[in-house]
Amino acid sequence: MQLRSAQVYYLPDHRDAAENYALAADLALPFVKEWFGQPREKVQLLELADRDAAPFESGSIVLTPLGKSDSALARLNAVHQLTHAAFYSPRPWIYEGVAHFMQAAYKEQDNGRQAALDFMGLHRTAVADAETSYMQHLIEAQARRDLEWFFDDWVYRDRGLPDFRVQSAYPRPIVGGGFVVAITVENLGSAGAEVPVTLRMEGGEVTKRVQVRANSTGTVRIEAPSAPQEVIVNDGSVPESNTSNNRFTIQK
Ligand SMILES: [Zn+2]
User: Fold this and answer.
1) What is the pLDDT of residue 36?
2) Rounded to an integer, what is the distance from CA 186 to the centroid of its chain?
3) Are 207 and 162 in contact, with CB atoms under 8 Å apart?
4) Quick one: pLDDT at residue 133?
5) 98 CA distance to ligand 1 centroid (A)?
6) What's phi and psi for 204, nearest 5 deg?
7) Span 110-131, average pLDDT
8) Burial level of 102, CB count in 10 A (0-12/13-18/19+)?
């Protein structure tokens, strides 16, 4: 069977179901075209003989049993495959993320905003399981830093928020004038983060970043050409449970 946007390979007695899918793909096509233009290729569906088999996809090809799915569901599935056929990214979370986003957007058009939110809620866990650890490794490869703690605290386990305070700040005069200030930041919360630390001094300020894991401390050294006065941890860019303890006055 060959229609405008999908090619379906089906078992001899499943012609109706195959036609339903092909029609669903044609009906969903204008929506996908509006976003990404004409798909570069046809969507291909290969029917699996085992009715209980889990669907499997590779790009715009999907292998799935052809049951009696209703038209709305068939169109929703077709949106996913058509998006793959029209939009490619070598980054799996973008490639899959865009296809899922398009399904949510289609659902919103069909059934309203709440339906779209419900759809995303259904997929959130599966998507996080399947794709986030891969994303973590890609980001690590780029950043060449161990970010496992970050994903653990913020993505996988949702440990709440950090709570930073400046535990100590010790200025030490250096040869030729000025100071080096050793600043220790404590994180009282159970999620770690990299946080900016600002040292204010006579006539200016310097900001550096320090990584502070959950329930531990991190130290940063900042040079000050003039007398250091105050340390402020977190400029508001890192979500935090308590910001009333973020300032520290340096004693003369
Ligand atoms: Zn996909």
Assistant:
1) 83
2) 28
3) no
4) 64
5) 9
6) 170, -175
7) 70
8) buried
pLDDT tens, residue by residue, 179-237: 999 999 999 999 888 899 999 999 999 999 999 999 999 999 999 999 999 999 998 87
State in Å: Cα 84 to ligand 1 middle.
Answer: 7
Nearest alpha carbon to residue 79 among 52, 55, 103: 103
- State how far the Cα of 20 lies from the Cα of 12, in Å rounded to an integer: 15
- Cβ atoms within 10 Å, residue 129: 10
Q: 13 C-alpha vs ligand 1 centroid, how far in Å?
A: 28
Cα–ligand 1 centroid distance for 19 (angstroms): 22
CA distances in angstroms from 223 to 62, 174, 201, 226, 235, listed in the order given: 59, 9, 10, 9, 19
Interatomic CA distance for residues 151 and 160, integer angstroms: 13
To the nearest 10°, report the CA torsion of 94, 97, 101, 107.
150
Report the half-sphere exposure of 115 (CA within 13 A, side-chain side): 12
Q: 52: which 2 tokens?
A: 């209980």
Tell me the β-bridge partners of 63: 46, 56
Interval between CA 100 and ligand 1 midpoint (Å): 7
Quick one: three-class SS letters along 77-111?
HHHHHHHHHHCCCCCHHHHHHHHHHHHHHHHHHHH
Q: What confidence score (pLDDT) does residue 139 get?
A: 57
Strand positions, DSSP E, the chain: 6-9, 43-47, 56-58, 61-64, 164-173, 179-187, 193-201, 204-212, 216-224, 228-233, 247-249
